[in-house]
Amino acid sequence: MAEQFINLRNLEFLLYEMFDATQLTKYPYFSDHSKETFDLVISTAMQMGKDMLFPAFSEMDKKPPEFKDGKVYVHPLAAQIMKACGEGGWIGAESSYEYGGQQIPNMLMTAFRGIFAAANYSASVYPFLTTGAAHLITSFGSKELIQTYVPKMFAGLWQGTMALTEPQAGSSLTDITTLAIPTKEGFYKIKGQKIFISSSDYESIENVVHLLLGRIEGAPLGVKGISLFVVPKKRPEKNGGLVTNDVTCMGIYHKLGYRGAPITQLAFGDNDDCRGWLVGEPNKGLSCMFQMMNEARIDVGMGATAIASAAYYASLEYTKQRPQGRPIMAKDPLTPQIPIIEHADIKRMLLFQRAIVEGSLSLIFQCSQYVDLASVTQGEEKERYELLLDLLTPVAKSYPSEMGILSVSQGLQCLGGYGYCDEFPLEQYYRDVRIHSIHEGTTGIQGMDLLGRKVVMKNGKAFLLFIEELKKAIASGQETDECKNCADSLAEAIKILQNTTESLISIARRGETEFFLADATLYLELFGIITIAWQWLLQATRASIALRSVTNKEDENFYSAKIHTCRYFFTYELPKLKGIEETLVKAEGLTLKMRPEWFE
Amino acid sequence: MAEQFINLRNLEFLLYEMFDATQLTKYPYFSDHSKETFDLVISTAMQMGKDMLFPAFSEMDKKPPEFKDGKVYVHPLAAQIMKACGEGGWIGAESSYEYGGQQIPNMLMTAFRGIFAAANYSASVYPFLTTGAAHLITSFGSKELIQTYVPKMFAGLWQGTMALTEPQAGSSLTDITTLAIPTKEGFYKIKGQKIFISSSDYESIENVVHLLLGRIEGAPLGVKGISLFVVPKKRPEKNGGLVTNDVTCMGIYHKLGYRGAPITQLAFGDNDDCRGWLVGEPNKGLSCMFQMMNEARIDVGMGATAIASAAYYASLEYTKQRPQGRPIMAKDPLTPQIPIIEHADIKRMLLFQRAIVEGSLSLIFQCSQYVDLASVTQGEEKERYELLLDLLTPVAKSYPSEMGILSVSQGLQCLGGYGYCDEFPLEQYYRDVRIHSIHEGTTGIQGMDLLGRKVVMKNGKAFLLFIEELKKAIASGQETDECKNCADSLAEAIKILQNTTESLISIARRGETEFFLADATLYLELFGIITIAWQWLLQATRASIALRSVTNKEDENFYSAKIHTCRYFFTYELPKLKGIEETLVKAEGLTLKMRPEWFE
Q1: Which residues of A touch B451 (CB under 8 A)?
Q2: Are B222 and B174 in contact (CB under 8 A)?
Q3: Model confidence pTM above 0.95
Q4: Which residue from A minimizes the CA distance to B340?
Q5: Looking at this predicted complex, what is its ipTM?
Q6: Which of A125, A471, B29, B418 has the largest count of CB atoms under 10 Å?
């Protein structure tokens, strides 16, 4: 099995050469840090990834969670990783000193999480889902809630979750019915069911803290009546003890992949004794939850990228070692066979993977940089980062998820029949990566979010800011010989984006909203290709400049590969825009006109 | 679980309205048959599929083959299906009366196999792999070999296999080293190893007959020294008994999917007592084997299509039953939720699946029709069918395999989180369908076959015949109002195909063979899209004409759906050509220029 699952040199390139993480230490909030701290974060993550997570990658898949007598038993690594991340301060690292955190930039924690996810995606979910849940409490919870829950969560003693989905509602959050009945004592009595809740119950952890969406008795219907609650599996008593809180695990799902983490169905309040505590204002729960969901969406994009990265390195290792066939022009069977990495079609499949992995990773770090900059700036500048982040979140979630599936599939294909067998890890990566276009909002939901909300919000302000960013990248790209052609192609792509967007918006202006949004998924695909092209152009431009003053062979290879992979993306992926543009402009609501009875 | 796995009405449309199977009965070879025989074939297959194969679909996956003490144990259905297909005459049905067959047209057997594969792909492999192996013996074997093996195989008593792949050779057949040492007695002593051999050993069958590629001692190196042998697991004695033939199963593979059939590693002659019998001429084995491989390649395309068909119906059933969300313009939470099939994005995912499934199926039947017509015609007409079949075989193998993966993935996506869980069959279809772009020659191999051999053979004669077929379809399409636009688009697509092909051939003419073939996989993709567009135009044209004299609502819906799905294909899939054309014309050997060390 490949020893490499992510490229450290590339992470350093993104952090220090592309997105200049050290620049952040100039801001007071991050001023205690330095490149040394950052390097330590990365090297710690690599060490934990190699020593603790990666060795259990296959075993966690082969020994998935078990549900016996109402209890969930998981692989021992779950408790170990929570303990290690708690003791090392990694769960709360991003949080402010006030809450026991270390004020580490999001960019660094993104690298940390990415390394974990590449080493073992399932295992990485436990600590970082806890991070997201705890951040919700620090952002919107009362002082008492923060004091009661956050230190335990940051310490890795209590698991955090997001409990949104219900059997009858699925993606339609407006139909959430979990009931919260106010009591004189200040807490709410919770009654309802949740499904598909990740890492939401297991015996080897002291407690689980659900950040749950429900509806206060008498609240308005629809999304305007949804509130956010903390609902622990066991409720903390004044004396420090824990009392069962009437949260019952009804079962676990048996999944295609991502088997190291238990996904459960939960019943709250079956015995009328489940207590929840309101987080934030009544009926404002959804907007609070969106903080966590937006973080989680970028994290899902990172998870997909990380799995695709590990699959890339596993397939790369195989293609270097497997001799088969000869160069096209040297068919003499007396000559030795060559490693398959020398065949053009294998190179294409490796380049494809690399273009997806490093393009997606760059976008994820771009988003992290916006998170960090928005947290330390004010006024218009802050708004700019926030708008760009809002616009790009559905793209950073879905492009890596959708393309990650294809990328891992090409990795599997590099191994031929062996890719289909469990002696090699590709088949597991193939199963694992398939979750990401589903959880935290399907690709369809992301498309509606991008076109129906983000592109049009504030009169298209975020969209215009994005075009500005593209134009800046084009201008610098045009200044280097290596990137000029790609920069010109991206300029053409902007026209396609603008034309297509205008064509769709004109439908919206006519009031035909259903038609306007019918192909939002395709629009998301188009937008995603352009976004990744932008990131590739930025990377190749940076690499071209660095190449001029390169001092060693490793760096020369690294930068040359960046430029070549950028060209690959612009030659093999960017042209796909033309077909999507034609479809979007010509489809004329074809899918809407398909009658359900015609499907029989 | 969905009760439907394939659409009977559509099979009838293809057989009787599109490819006019009854017309075949005018030829003496098929003259004993009639539409009644054909209907019986189809209804028998549907019955066996529903009663025998489909009910065990999930169980065969959950209880895969086991390897214990050198023996392979499989699900009881394997023996049952062999027995039932043997007794019913289905294994040899296509063969001539002379060999105990029934002279059933290939088109009908394609329908039969397709129904089986949609009901339970793994189970369908046992009997029909036996068919292919037996056909090789009837085509090239001596009278004695035929008499010894074929009746047992047609009776379902002995399993047939193809034993090509070796550990050190993989796809590179030139490097096959299995040795065949001649003996005075007329047989050969076989020594070697084979890997990835389907259905090649299991305890519940009396015997297994391997059609094996090996090299006679002293034979020329390379593909010109490969011979074909019959090598049984147990060799038949004169007295009718069976004696062990020194074929050892060394292990089975644990696979992502397709788990109902055992795939093994075999050792031949470890104790110097493995006997094989030559089939056909010495050193001509590869061309004999290609008869079986070409049949098998179209069968793989059918297998992929069949799985995608079953996945389509499973996802369709779910989308009709699952209420979630409301129409975009009716967000009032007091109104009831609607079934998700009414959402545009779900309709798009269903239409995509249907376009892939019914487009691919039509191509498979087109190929079968060529098989049948080639078998009953002579001279130039026969050559025409053979050339078209040769040209389209890599397309019929790879388009359904590659697009089947995406089609099933969209089926899975329709179910959201449930698609990822094993309560529904989608996750199994997703795993099962992934084999098809690997076995019987990977997609990369098919691309090289299409561009490097088929397009250029006989000075491009097959290619020109194909263009003629496209033009005929365009001419009829242009005569109906419903299809005129699609016909015009296909005319444009021909130009893209011609331009791209010429651009690539000009590279070959310069002698740059490696560069010429570097993007053969992309060329195959482009060729595939045009081929399926052609089949869709043919289907929609036929449906448009039928719609004029339709007498009932079911038929009206069926034909309307055909026309609408054709439009979907032309609007959502055909435009992809433009991007591929741009890549093929502009890539300039970019993948070749990628240096192996840059991948690190």
Answers
A1: none
A2: yes
A3: yes
A4: A596
A5: 0.97
A6: A125
